[in-house]
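Hi R.,

Here are the chain sequences for the assembly we discussed:
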Amino acid sequence: MPFLHLKAVSKGFDSLRGRTEVLKDINLEIERGEFVAIVGYSGAGKTTLINLIAGLTRPDSGQITLNDLEIEAPGPDRGMVFQNYSLLPWLSVYENVRLAVDQLFPNWSESKKHQHTEVNIARVNLTQATQKKPGELSGGMRQRVSLARALSMDPQILLLDEPLGALDALTQATMQDEISRIWQESNKTVVLITNDVDEGIYLADRIIPLSSGPAATLGPSIPIDIPRPRNRKLLSFDPAFKKARQQVIEFLLESNKHRPTSITRKMTLPDIEPEDLSQPRPMIGGRKTPIRKREMHRETIETGM
Amino acid sequence: MKERGFKLDWLLLPCLGSIAVLLLWWLSSNTWSKELPDPMKTWNSSKIYVLEPFAKRGELDQGILRFTVLSLSLVLKGYVIALILGTPLGFCIGLSKTFAKAFDPLCQVLRPVSPLAWLPLGMVLFLGAGKNASELAAVFTIAICSMWPTVLNTAAGVRAIPQDYLNVAKVLKLSRSQTLRKVLLPAALPYMFTGFRLSLGIAWLVIVAAEMLTGRPGVGGFLWQEYNALIYEHIILCILTIGIVGFVLDRLMSLVENRLKFA
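And here is the predicted structure of the full complex:
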């Protein structure tokens, strides 16, 4: 049995214009210790997918199991690093991590909890910022705190939801190296959601593209046979990198091609009746306002190729 | 050069403004409103209350700070009750849609009711309390009038808590009471304190009406008594006192409020 198993998972949301299928027939098998990246367009349903694994939302149909146990609710066995850090701004770095430690290991002694918190802050190189509040930290540092918090829960699997999406390119590169190092040290199972194909290939053992929505589904799993530690500078010349990159991009472009896209917009058209200028106007009391009728209009433009 | 000249702005300009108003006051009392005492006369008649702020010469003849303390203690009682009732009510309205639908319209209807309208009801409510009836009615009026900003701001604060914080609580499997203590309460605290500050302002506003109608000793009661005794100078003294105390209370609360804000 695979460690994390998604079987025919579908999920849709009700919107104003009826029901939208976001994910359709998702099948995914991840082994223990694997680093898997899922890439896709923004808005394809990547966050929905990871929320399903985290248990924050429930699938409409299908089954998700971790270690043969069905995922029914969120839990600390799945350490989640959110796209927008999700740190509690009134707590310091230490307190944010400590909150998780206190919650998960209530039976530990005070000194052991303290030590565990400090160790995990040190793992993400934030020891100097222990007493700072999230508001005083840069985006990269905040994401490190979020990572430290997830690691301190000692989860069975780490779920990274576009963790570097909000960071600048240079910080992204450092953080990628950091994530790679931490993964190698801890040997945890990691699912990384990203919209950056290169990031996915650089970090993961396997990369799986998610077709563009609605009703997005996973494409073929593409193994990345590049030995670690990987060299960022030489990576783009590696034939394995080029091949994987091409496969992913081809799938993504192809999936976007067949998507019938249309934009429906609601318009409010003012319908103004012209004023009769030959009529005398009342001088006191101001202008007579022209009569307006409003008309609602709906138009759909097909932009499919 | 220019910057140095502007440094005293904060002191100089308010002084200029006050002098302008004093001048207008003096002019008014000497021209069209002969009954209005002019600034000098007001000061001469009031100085005993200001210079001996804690003297007690009679039930309704006390130093101005002594009156202030009396009024403040009454306000404090009503205000504390308002917070104790208002905060949980606001939390419930913010957390539960059903609760909000049930009670929000009621809050909106009761909110604009004037203290002058609540006070007689308070008198009726505590008719059985005998000697204490007027104090209880005053406390009741202060509480019910000053409660609403706390209720509404707490509710708004709870509603404004980002889903992310709640997700953190879910992933960590915090229990209901832990979520309340560790996530909801601190996240809503800045909003709540804005509510507390506005509530305190209203509580202080209500005191005058409450004391006037119940005849209790305090700044408001003194004001009403001196009006009936035709000593108009003291009305102005009371107005200034009420204004200054209100201002100081608001400043103090906003100091606390600013400390709670997080980026």
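Chain B is about 80% helix and 0% strand. Chain B touches chain A through 17 residues (CB under 8 Å).

Let me know if anything looks off.

Best,
T.
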